Each structure stands twice: as structure tokens, then as C-alpha cells.
Amino acid sequence: MADGVLGSLPPAAIELAYLAAAILFIQGLRDMTHPRTAARGNQLSSGGMFLAVLATVLYFEIVSPLLLAAALLIGGSIGVWLAVSVETTEMPQLVGLFNGFGGGASAVVAGAELVDTVDPATTASLSADLTVSAAIAGIIGSATLFGSLIAAGKLHGMVGDPPLSGTAGQALQGLFLLGAVVAGGFLVVQTGILGGDPLTTWLPSYWVLVAAASVFGIVLVYPIGGADMPVVIALLNSMSGLAAATTGFVLDNTALIVAGTLVGAAGLILTFIMCESMNRPLLDVLFGTMGGDDEDVEDIYEGNITETSPEEVEMLLEVAERVVVVPGYGMAVAQAQHAVAELAELLEEDGVDVEFGIHPVAGRMPGHMNALLAEADVPYDKMRELEEINPKFSQTDLVIVTGANDVVNPSANEDENSPIAGMPVLEVWDAGTVVVNKRSLSSGFAGIPNPLFAKDNTSMLFGDAQASMQDLVSAYKENR
User: Fold this and answer.
1) In contact, 227 and 446? CB cutoff 8 Å
2) Cα separations in angstroms, 266 against 33, 45, 239, 246
3) Which of helix, strand or coil describes residue 442?
4) What digits encode the pLDDT tens for the residues 322-374?
5) In this predicted structure, what is the pLDDT of residue 196?
6) Are 205 and 183 in contact (CB under 8 A)?
7) Which residue(s) pair with 324 in the sheet?
8) 3-state DSSP assignment of residue 192
9) Can you tell me the distance from the alpha carbon of 131 to that of 140, in angstroms, rounded to the nearest whole number?
């Protein structure tokens, strides 16, 4: 009901405000497709959301203005605190939590609208549009909330491997999804089978739906390995947008429908791009498994590993004319981007051509490596995508791989039986010499050995990425 401070304005006024917000969302999304304009895109999108919220609050009297202001202040303060205090390496977990909060909010708002709308004397006349939209929002939103909590827990190392086999897990997934859908069906047809005092005949169905969908979200994400978690985060992002869009239909709110649809579409496109980058179908990511065995590791590594030191790598740098740095999650964990950037700057001052090879799924979310390197003032024009950098490795004297593993695994190209067979990878082994900086020979998220470590032109620089890169910088400075 338009009974807010600006409620006397014609309905076209609020729709005009929502249209302006939608334009800002779309332009912001477009700007976020490139690193150079991403910050502006974020600001435009935030401005659009602020406009949509402000117009809604002023046009409609939803709750007490004082209560609403207090909620906005508390929520905004928590958001600012998280944004400034969370480490860059923990950003994927934070994105996962934000996805979950968005999905959970959609489920709660849809349920609240049902509670607000219900009239025991007229429940039979509730529109199918309302109940169908609420059921979809409840299922997707609840699954997104609890799936995102599990994903964030896995990324943070707080959630381990599942105790159930793949078949048992898939049976549970089917059982709880079916339960949520059946409860949604009862909600729509209002048969009253799940109803009873003191609630209405249909209301319990919604909460049964929420409970079943919540467990479905848990058993869906729990068995998925860490290597696939970036895809899962993107998919959950899409689900949170779809939940918001369907909640927009429940509330008949244009801004929420547009914003949710944009988020859902963008997240879904990103999900398929990442699946393509990993050469894995989405269903295989959600229901498949990955991993090797210890015998493979012994066969590949035993007697074939060459260890090096910062001083020996410095000697290679002295004669190199072209160097490519390939960063991975290990660099992010060690916060080694500043030492890497300093090394690159020193080399360029001495006339060495330096570039960075970025894999689309390096780290734990898209753009993770780009953001870290940009934070260390590495120019964007030095960062090369996989398609750009692969043809150049054969003309490269030295490649330094720091903290990356699966994205430089030649098994993707050479072993058709490998779990990552066909996945596009950075073909660093084509360079003259490869130095891999890792703490150990342990497997990456895919859980398989990496034959790159045992190649004749590869040397292993064992140690923490920040300490190793800093030692390398010091050694290079001493011998300039």
C-alpha cells in the first residue's frame, strides 16, 4: 500500500525510480566485465540498489520508520565491517555467505508475505501466482542458504569430507528435493493434508518445504570437492538471484524482479563459463567425484624431482629475456603478491619482458588472482588470459609457478583417463625452464599428482610463497 512519505505520488513515480535503478544495475553489470571498469560498475550497481531501497521505503510504509532505520544501520554496519576486515584470501567464503544470506532472506520474505496475506476465511481463494512464486522462492532460497553455509565452511577448512558414499548421498538429495517439491505442491493446491491448528490449512506446507529444501542444500553441496567449489559458488550466486526474482513476484516488486533476474542470469553464465574452463559438465560437478591414489604419486615423483634454491633461480633470471609468472591460490594464502610484483618490477627495470599467466579458475573464485595482483599495483595489461599466454610459453625463457597446481597439470592434455582430462590448462612446460614454488609435492584441489613437477625442465622451489619470493627478490637485488 502506497502510504509512505511519498505515497501521494502517482504509481508511475515509483516505477520510474525502479526503471532508473534497473538501468544502473545493467550498466554496472556491463562495467564489471572488465577489470579496468569493475570498480565503477560496482559503484553504479550499489547506487541502483540504494535508489531502489530508498524509493521503496519512502513510497510504501512497510514497517515503523524507526525500526527500518535501525535495521538498515545495523545491516549496513555489519556489511562495511565485513568488507574492510575480511582478508582477500577469504573473499570466496564471504561471497558464499552473501549468496546464502540473499537466498535465506528471499525464503523468509516469501514466507512473511504468506503470513501477512493469510486470512483463514479466504485461504481457498489465494492466487496460484502467489503460492507458486512463494514455493519456488522458498525452495531455491532455503537450498541456497544452507548450501552456501556448507560451501563457505569447506572453503574455510571447517567442513570435511562427507561420511556417505556417492550413491547414498544422491539418494538423500533426491529424497529431500522430492519432499520439498511435494510440500510446494500442497502449498499450491491447499489440500490441507499438512495443515492443522493453530495455523491455517496451507501454512505448514511452506515450512515443511523450507525444512526439506534446507537439508537438500546441505546434502547437495557437502559431497562436492574443493576443486569444484568456485563453480558451486557461482551456481549458488545464480540461485540467490533466482530466489530474489521469484520473491519479487510474491511482493509484486519490479525492482526485485529485475535485480534478481540479472544476478541469476549473470551467475548462471559464469557457472557455465567456469564449467567450460574445467571441461566438466555441470551435472558432473554436482554429482561426480575426483581424486587419484598414492601409487600414482610414487610412480611419477620417485627419483624424478629436481630441487632448487632462490640463489639458483636468481642465476636463471640474470640471463632470461622473457619471464612469465603463474600465480595460484598458494600465492594468495601466503600474501606473496607484493613480493611477486616487486620482482617483476625489478626485472622490467633491467629490460626483461615480464607477463602474468592467469587461469580462469585459479584461486577459489573468478578474478581472484587479478584482484590480488592489482592490489600489488601490477598493471592489468601485464595479465594474460589462458588463450593469450599459452602460445607464448614456447618463446619464454623462464616460468615461475607460485602456489598453482591443477591449472598447470599436463595430465589434462596427456592422460585421457585423468579426472581433469580435457580441462584447458596453462602449458608452462613448453617454456625453456619452469620453477614451481610450493610447500610440498602435495596434490591440489583435484586430488591428483602433477607430472609437471617431474619433467626434465622443471625445478621445485619448496617453501612458503611469500618467504621464497622475498628471498628471490633479495638475491636478485644483491647481484644486479
Assistant:
1) yes
2) 10, 14, 11, 16
3) coil
4) 999 999 988 887 889 999 999 999 999 999 999 999 988 787 677 778 888 98
5) 46
6) yes
7) 355, 399
8) coil
9) 14
pLDDT in the model for residue 198 = 42
Task: Please report the sign of the dihedral spanned by the C-alpha atoms of residue 278, residue 284, residue 286, residue 290.
Answer: negative
What CA–CA distance (Å, rounded) separates 338 from 84?
19
Name the residue with cell 591449472.
Answer: 407
Per the listing, cell 622475498 goes with 470
Mean pLDDT of the chain: 85
C-alpha cell of residue 92: 570466496
- Alpha carbon 294 to its chain centroid, in Å, reads 30
The DSSP string of 360-428 is TTSTTSTTHHHHHHHHTT--GGGEEEHHHHGGGGGG-SEEEEES--GGG-THHHH-TTSTTTT-----G
DSSP states of 295-358: HHHHHHHTTT--B--HHHHHHHHHH-SEEEEEE-HHHHHHT-HHHHHHHHHHHHHTT-EEEEEE
Q: In what order do the strands lie in the sheet with 398-402?
A: 383-385, 353-358, 322-327, 398-402, 433-438, 458-462
| Region of 196 on the Ramachandran plot (φ > 0 left; ψ -120 to 50 alpha; else beta) | left
Mind telling me the catalytic residues? Answer: 406
Alpha-carbon gap, residue 17 to 53, rounded angstroms: 10
DSSP 97-160: HHHHHHHHHHHHHHHHHHHHH--TTTGGG--HHHHHHHHHHHHHHHHHHHHHHHHHHHHTT-S-
Radius of gyration of the chain (CA): 26
- Can you give the pLDDT at residue 238? 92
Cα separation, 403 vs 72, whole angstroms:
40
Cell of 356: 602474468
Residue-wise pLDDT tens digits, 162-182: 665 667 778 888 999 999 999
